[in-house]
């Protein structure tokens, strides 16, 4: 009986040890610099068109490596770099709007964790900047969606501006690509519109943001299909 009892205890201990050794998923990093919706003017000038910017973030738990992704919003061109540090430098275009995120990972887990997505303008020769291109929230581009009982879909986006002086948005929506039909104009506080759709149809839409100086930016074309 004693042998069976000790064998049972040993099995319990082994199971407990295996649970303790279960891989822990990484947590999302907190971004530090460049600041959200800001002008980054601390880069090192490389030439007339490029400057080197150092991106910084806080360490996250259970993380061995970080992948920094920086996207030029004018061209939708991404740059990525992977590092074990909590900072990394990239050469990016002066005067252009960018988004940046950091993805945390470790070798013991297949799960990764993404930080928030921050926008900034890399400092350039201009004194003022147009609004950031609107960030589309819903429907996700390329997705298939279900209309509500009234055969309607809600279009949602996020707008931001360095000077915080957005005056309004224009939403273009149609079955043609690119969409040229103005669906609705909204003020700076309203970042969603509702539109009537038909089942089995693919729609294209984009958002043009305007600030108080009359400067504009275009989100680019997004699409979705209705079930």
UniProtKB/TrEMBL annotation:
Pfam families: fn3. Residues 138-217 form the Fibronectin type-III domain. This is Fibronectin type III domain-containing protein. It comes from Croceitalea marina. The lineage of its organism: Bacteria, Pseudomonadati, Bacteroidota, Flavobacteriia, Flavobacteriales.
């Amino acid at each position: 009986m004693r042998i069976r009892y000790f064998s049972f205890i040993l099995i319990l201990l082994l199971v407990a040890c295996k649970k303790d050794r279960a891989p822990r998923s990484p947590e999302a990093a907190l971004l530090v610099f460049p600041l959200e919706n800001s002008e980054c003017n601390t880069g090192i000038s490389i030439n007339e068109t490029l400057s080197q910017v150092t991106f910084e973030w806080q360490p996250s738990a259970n993380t061995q490596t970080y992948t920094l992704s920086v996207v030029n919003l004018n061209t939708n061109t991404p740059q990525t770099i992977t590092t074990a540090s909590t900072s990394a430098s990239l050469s990016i275009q002066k005067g252009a709007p960018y988004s940046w995120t950091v993805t945390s990972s470790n070798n013991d887990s297949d799960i990764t964790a993404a930080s928030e997505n921050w926008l900034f303008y890399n400092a350039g020769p201009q004194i003022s900047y147009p609004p950031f291109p609107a960030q589309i929230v819903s429907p996700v581009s390329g997705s298939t969606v279900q209309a509500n009982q009234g055969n309607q879909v809600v279009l949602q986006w996020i707008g931001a501006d360095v000077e915080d002086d957005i005056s309004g948005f224009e939403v273009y929506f149609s079955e043609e690509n690119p969409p040229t039909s103005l669906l609705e104009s909204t003020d700076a506080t309203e970042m969603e519109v509702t539109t009537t759709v038909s089942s089995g149809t693919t729609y294209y839409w984009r958002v043009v943001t305007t600030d108080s100086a009359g400067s504009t930016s275009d989100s680019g074309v997004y699409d979705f299909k209705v079930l």
